[in-house]
Amino acid sequence: MMRAEWLPVLMQGSFSEIYIVDCVGLGFIQTNQAAQKNLRYTCEELSTLSMPEVVRGISLDELERILHSLHSGERAFAEIETVHARKDGSNYPIELRLFYCASGDKPVYIAIGNDLSARHASATALSHSEARFRAIVSNTPGLVYQFLQRQDGSIAFPYLSDGCHALLGLSAERLQADSSLFLELILPEDRQSYLDSMQVSASSMKAWNWEGRLWIEKWHDIKWINLRSTPRALPGQGVQWEGIMTNITESKQEQAEIKCSRAQLAELSAHVETVKENERTRIAREIHDDLGGNLTAIKMALALLKKRLPDDAALTEKTAYVDSLVDRTIESIHRITVDLRPGILDFGIVAAIDWQAKEFEKQLGIHCTFLSSKKEIALHPDQATALFRIFQEALTNIGKHAAATQVSVRLTRTNRSVRLEVVDNGKGIDATDRMKPKSFGIRGMVERASALGGQLSVSNAANGGTEVSLRIPLSP
Length: 476
Description:
Layout: H1 2-13, E1 17-22, E2 28-31, H2 33-39, H3 43-47, H4 51-54, H5 60-71, E3 77-85, E4 91-101, E5 108-115, H6 117-138, E6 143-150, E7 155-160, H7 164-168, H8 172-177, H9 181-185, H10 188-204, E8 208-216, E9 221-234, E10 238-247, H11 249-308, H12 313-340, H13 349-364, E11 367-372, H14 381-402, E12 406-413, E13 417-424, H15 431-434, H16 440-451, E14 455-460, E15 466-473
Parallel strand pairs: 11-12
Antiparallel strand pairs: 1-2, 1-5, 3-4, 4-5, 6-7, 6-10, 8-9, 9-10, 12-13, 13-15, 14-15
């Protein structure tokens, strides 16, 4: 019953290759469809071949020795990896398991085989992939790692690249043996931010990006590192991150140097502005006191001289011309001294802003309204001068570029700062206009504000036009 009913089903239904081999001549008595398909022979063609004609990865002597050990009962079965030759001459790897069957009148060998081509291809692909991975990792600056936070809160480093020692001063083996060493490397003041960022990444499953300082005991040095990794949940284990750590100490030092350089430049710029304002004040005072006084004396002397001149039309005309020339010169001196250092600032910043707004409206014909939250706002002279100069520059820009018909100015004092807002209804400003190489007006405004610890922004107003917003902190 077994031979008549079950054996054909097992033979033809199996995905493995099955061969029934004659013990005497090693010819194929029967083969299943899987064997015929892989070898590309028909059943009739295989019945004319022997096992040594198909098995090419092992010598005939070795094959006979293995079969003899089965026939003699030395072992129950044998496993070999060999190569089968197809009808077209191509080969493929195969894993064979051989048995000796003595039941019946004619004993046979049974060979059951599995094609190893897919397994070998996968192994080759995996080997190539691992080689590429090792090449990439070995040429990647920094440390490539896997970091695991288990469900009980414990941590581990399943993988650490060869860059571990160069970056951390610890071998990969030592850090994997005691993963808590990494947290100990982090400076105490940076540890909490490290732990917080890790928990945020674990809870949100978003990228983990952290920068901090490590104390490298081996070199007695502090390093800045940047940690970037991507989390993924491991069911039943916890959260694992794959990423890279890099040494950013040099870039941090460069940033610190740039920051220091900018601070020095800002300090120098503030000093230059202070010196300029002081020099303007000095020049304005000298022009007013010296030239103004001299011109006043000339005008008085000219008036006395005019009374004593004989009744001569030509002399009277000349005298009137000189008198008007003196008046025009006095007006010019007044205008120059106001430009150098507006005396209106002596009456306070509110009065100065109000005066400048009215002068702007009178000169350009652009309606300008001014509102102040206080009648008087006490400011340090340097703050008052800087705020007034910024306001002047804002009005100059409106007159040149805005094509506006109305300007609204608001000055507000709070407990900690003074805020100036200048809004026009012109054509607005593009971002590219603010970044033009020769846009010194806006840059000068920003520099003046920064020198006083304030902030200045230039943006498009909500209802069109441009808004200049300045905030200056009050001196304590």
